[in-house]
Structures are given as structure tokens and as C-alpha cells.
Write a sequence for this structure.
């Protein structure tokens, strides 16, 4: 911190008297003026005494902006005596630069400055991100209420009329400093919260990148696949995949952990990796009911923070064109066969995975005709509250899929756009996962 | 979401739910629901005719209560679900653990059996 300049003593009695009159008032009648001058002189002597304490800025650093040298020196003495560090400026533009450069806790400035006025300085300071939070106390010989109101409206923290009362000055500076300290504390807390939010956002972005990296590549042969995944929050509770178990068996699956967000995503990623890597002891991954039974044993909800998941798991056997599938509480997949009026709902009996120990699961099977389309999805694609208040239904969603042109590739973007339109918003209540396979 | 207590002091607890059993709705009644079902260790009859939507979190509180009651050899009975809610319950497979009925008397008979 720069040392505070030593205020100079006023040399001549006449000049001292003139300054005294200016600072402590000049308009009274002679007796009153004499009395006031006497009091003022004592006060003047008092304020020009070297402070008994130190001139350090232990209580804060203040910039005084006043073109009247004696006035600012008297102010300085008062404030230094209170333990504040004080610096000076005479002109507004330079004062704003000093404030921007230095680490000031408060500024005291004259309203009637030559050049840039005190009010104009205030407007500039309040539109400057660096200066915005520095408290400003305005000083003026002008006493009219309109000036005071203009100062407060322009963002002054306080206003002191000249001639000032030293006790009032100290009290108001102290109050402004306390407000500044509180504001600084608030800013420090906000800074910490912001830093924390940025860290969490970065970690969530990393986690989302990882989650997305687990999703499968689109296939072009021997059939085509496409998918859309739109989590309702940063991380979703849905996930899905497909992979070749061997040259003849193709596994496809979609799981939906109850809830969404980080807790749900952790379980969904764990379960996905277990399925992708065939890490369910004793399960034949060509047999859906075995996969579901084994997953139910591995992920009991009491050991998964009371979370369960639904799972649709199917295996397409290329050599026989058959699809075997099972479900753990998951909505049916929809199979659109060429020429059929309505889709087949591929549902199978079975409890949500992890819901109850020793739950029983069944496998179902169907043939897949050439040209068929299979859609696998979570309930988020059709559990939509329509503007009229009723819920959209699975059958209506099936009708929507049925309207997709049969002679063109499946356009999932059109389906998602329709879902947004039905919702009347691009904000989702639940994760949206949708896989299409064109055989 | 609203939970109305019809009779909590008889041989079985009788309550009614109405509203949307989504994340928000579940948050509003979960503790109270568990308090009137799982914690009472007697059959619980829950009229869900006023439930208009059943999300996965709604299924979770039913499942949690049913599991606790199951340990006491008691049952959770869900009465009069609306068609879409019934479809969700059936799809979830929760019917293996809870009794879903449209008639209270036959549901209670099933619970005693």
C-alpha cells in the first residue's frame, strides 16, 4: 500500500480562517460565526494534530477526491485517526483510474468537482464491473434535497453535506465500510459457488462424454441401426447398446434406471458395462431370461441406493431370422412388419431388475420378416403431458411411428421433433432414448 | 399429489392417493406414504383411482412399501387404477409383489390368503 501523504499545515492565519469558514460554515451572523469559528478552530487544531495511532490502512483504504486541498486534508486526518489508509485525487477521470488500479475499500468525493462532476463519476463507476462494488460517499456544500436524491439514485452509498460533522462522518464511513465488508464476503462466497459450479459442470461434461462414448456406432449392415439419446438433465438414467455375441447372435438392449441425474447415470453405466462385457456369472447372453435373472441378482435395489432399472433385452439370430426377447418391467418394443396394419408389441413378463429377489423372467420369440422395423425405447418417448392435460399413450406413439414413410430410411429426427411439438417445449421431463433397426 | 387417510386404525390401513406420481409428486408424499404403509406392518389398501400418472419413482415407493410389508407377511393392495396407470403397473411386473384390484373386499381376501 502507498503511504498516506502527510497533510501540510496551513501557514497563514488568514488563509486558515478562510478555510475554516469554508469547511465549517460561513453564512452565520457575526456572533454565531465567532462562536462557530472558535469551536471550529479548536476542531481544526484537533484534526491537524498528528494522529496518536498509526497511519496504516488496517481498517481499510479510502480515496478522497476533492479539489479543495484543505478540505481533503481535514478529511484525511479524521479518517487516519480512525485507522483508515487515505489517498488523494483532485480530478474525476484520474480518480476513477486510481480506483480501478488500486485496492480501495471506499471512495469519498465531492459532487462539485471541476471537469468530470461527482455525479458523472458515480454513473461511470456504477457501470464499471471493477468499480461497481466500491462504496461511494458523496460530499457537497449543496444542501438541497434534490441533489441528495440524485446522488442516491445514481448509486451513492451515502451523502454528507458540508460543512460536515466529524462524528457523523466517522459513523457513516464506518457503516459504509461494514456494508462493503459484507458485500466483499458475499462476493467471495459467490466466487466460491461459481468456482464450485464450474468444477461440477466440468465433471458432469466429462461424465456425459464418457456416457455418450459407451453408446454404439450406427450399423449399415447386415441391417441398419440408428438411435437418439437426449437426457433430461446433464446425465441420464437411460442407456442402451447392441453388439454381436457371436457371428450369428446380435444382442440389443435398453435400460432405464428410475429417476435421472448422476445417481441414476452411475447405475445405468455400471449395468451397461456389465451387459456389454458379458459379466453376469452363469448367464448365457443368447438367452434373454437368463440375462434378466442374473442382472436381478447382481443389482438388488437395496444395494443400489434403492434404485432399480427396467431392461428390455433381445437377441436376433441371423441364421433363423428370429428375435428372442425378455423384459424386466420395460415397455414393449414395437415391431412394424411390411404390410401389417398395426405393430406387434414385443412384451414379456418380468419384474423391474433389482425390484425383488428371485423374480422370474420369461423369453418370448418372433420371426423377423425382411423389411421389418424394430423400435426400442424408454417410456420417456410417450409419457408426455399434452397441452390439454391428458397423457399421451403408447398406442398413439405407435401410431406416430407407423406414419413414417416405409420407402425411406427411418427419420428419428422427425420423431423427436414430433415429441417436442407434442410437449410444446424442448425441455424433457424424462430422458429420451430411441433405437430403430431396419431389417 | 395428495395422500388422504381414510382409516389408519383398523385391521388394515386404508389410504387414497390422487394426482401425478412423478418425481415431484413422489417427493410430496413419500415419507407420509411409507409411514402409513411399510411402517405400520399391516395390510395396506391404497385407493389409486385418483392417480393420473405413474412414473418410475412412483413405482419405486410402491415397491419399497411392498417389500417391507412382504417381510412381515403383509400385502400392499393398489385399488382401482385408471387404465393407463394399470398398464404401467402391469408392464413393470410389480403385480408379482403387490395386489392390483378393483374390488376392496376381494383384494383383502387375497391378502389374507
Amino acid at each position: 500500500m502507498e503511504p498516506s501523504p502527510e497533510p501540510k499545515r496551513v501557514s497563514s492565519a488568514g488563509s486558515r480562517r478562510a478555510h475554516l469558514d469554508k469547511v465549517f460554515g460561513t453564512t452565520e451572523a457575526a456572533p454565531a460565526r465567532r462562536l462557530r469559528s472558535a469551536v471550529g478552530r479548536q476542531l481544526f487544531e484537533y484534526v491537524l494534530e498528528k494522529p496518536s495511532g498509526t497511519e496504516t490502512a488496517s481498517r481499510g483504504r479510502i480515496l478522497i477526491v476533492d479539489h479543495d486541498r484543505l478540505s481533503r486534508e481535514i478529511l484525511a486526518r479524521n479518517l487516519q485517526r480512525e485507522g483508515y489508509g487515505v489517498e488523494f485525487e483532485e480530478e474525476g477521470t484520474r480518480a476513477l483510474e486510481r480506483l480501478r488500479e488500486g485496492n480501495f475499500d471506499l471512495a469519498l468525493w465531492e459532487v462539485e468537482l471541476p471537469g468530470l462532476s461527482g455525479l458523472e463519476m458515480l454513473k461511470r463507476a456504477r457501470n464499471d464491473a471493477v468499480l461497481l462494488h466500491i462504496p461511494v460517499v458523496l460530499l457537497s456544500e449543496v444542501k438541497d434535497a434534490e441533489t441528495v436524491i440524485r446522488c442516491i439514485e445514481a448509486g451513492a452509498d451515502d451523502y454528507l453535506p458540508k460543512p460536515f460533522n466529524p462524528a457523523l462522518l466517522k459513523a457513516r464511513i464506518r457503516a459504509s465500510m461494514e456494508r462493503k465488508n459484507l458485500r466483499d464476503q458475499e462476493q467471495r462466497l459467490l466466487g466460491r459457488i461459481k468456482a464450485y459450479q464450474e468444477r461440477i459442470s466440468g465433471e458432469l461434461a466429462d461424465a456425459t462424454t464418457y456416457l455418450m462414448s459407451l453408446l454404439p456406432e450406427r450399423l449399415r449392415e447386415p441391417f441398419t441401426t440408428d438411435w437418439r439419446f437426449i437426457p433430461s438433465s446433464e446425465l441420464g438414467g437411460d442407456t442402451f447398446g447392441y453388439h454381436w455375441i457371436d457371428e450369428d447372435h446380435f444382442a440389443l438392449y435398453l435400460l432405464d434406471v428410475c429417476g435421472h441425474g448422476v445417481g441414476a447415470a452411475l447405475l445405468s453405466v455400471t449395468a451397461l458395462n456389465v451387459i456389454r462385457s458379458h459379466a453376469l456369472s452363469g448367464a448365457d447372453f443368447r438367452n434373454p431370461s437368463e440375462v434378466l435373472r442374473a442382472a436381478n441378482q447382481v443389482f438388488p435395489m437395496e444395494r443400489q441406493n434403492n434404485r432399480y432399472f427396467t431392461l428390455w433385452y433381445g437377441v436376433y439370430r441371423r441364421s433363423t431370422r428370429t428375435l428372442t426377447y425378455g423384459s424386466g418391467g420395460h415397455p414393449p418394443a414395437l415391431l412394424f412388419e411390411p404390410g401389417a396394419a398395426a405393430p406387434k408389441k414385443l412384451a414379456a413378463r418380468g419384474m423391474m431388475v433389482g425390484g425383488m429377489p428371485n423374480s422370474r423372467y420369461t423369453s418370448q420369440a418372433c420371426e423377423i420378416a425382411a423389411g421389418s422395423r424394430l423400435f426400442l425405447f424408454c417410456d420417456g418417448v410417450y409419457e408426455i403431458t399434452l397441452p390439454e392435460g391428458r397423457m399421451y399413450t403408447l398406442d398413439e406413439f405407435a401410431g406416430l411411428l407407423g406414419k413414417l414413410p416405409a420407402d425411406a430410411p427411418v427419420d428419428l429426427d422427425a420423431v423427436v421433433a414430433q415429441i417436442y411439438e407434442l410437449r410444446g417445449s424442448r425441455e424433457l421431463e424424462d430422458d429420451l432414448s430411441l433405437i430403430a433397426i431396419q431389417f | 399429489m395428495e395422500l388422504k387417510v381414510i382409516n389408519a386404525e383398523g385391521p388394515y390401513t386404508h389410504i387414497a392417493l390422487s394426482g401425478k406420481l412423478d418425481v415431484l409428486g413422489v417427493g410430496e408424499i413419500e415419507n407420509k406414504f411409507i409411514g402409513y404403509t411399510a411402517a405400520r406392518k399391516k395390510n395396506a389398501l391404497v385407493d389409486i383411482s385418483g392417480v393420473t400418472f405413474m412414473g418410475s419413482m412412483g413405482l419405486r415407493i410402491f415397491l419399497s412399501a411392498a417389500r417391507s410389508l412382504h417381510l412381515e407377511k403383509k400385502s400392499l393392495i393398489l385399488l382401482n387404477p385408471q387404465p393407463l396407470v394399470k398398464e404401467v403397473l402391469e408392464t413393470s411386473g410389480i403385480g408379482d409383489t403387490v395386489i392390483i384390484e378393483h374390488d376392496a373386499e376381494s383384494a383383502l381376501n387375497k391378502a389374507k390368503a
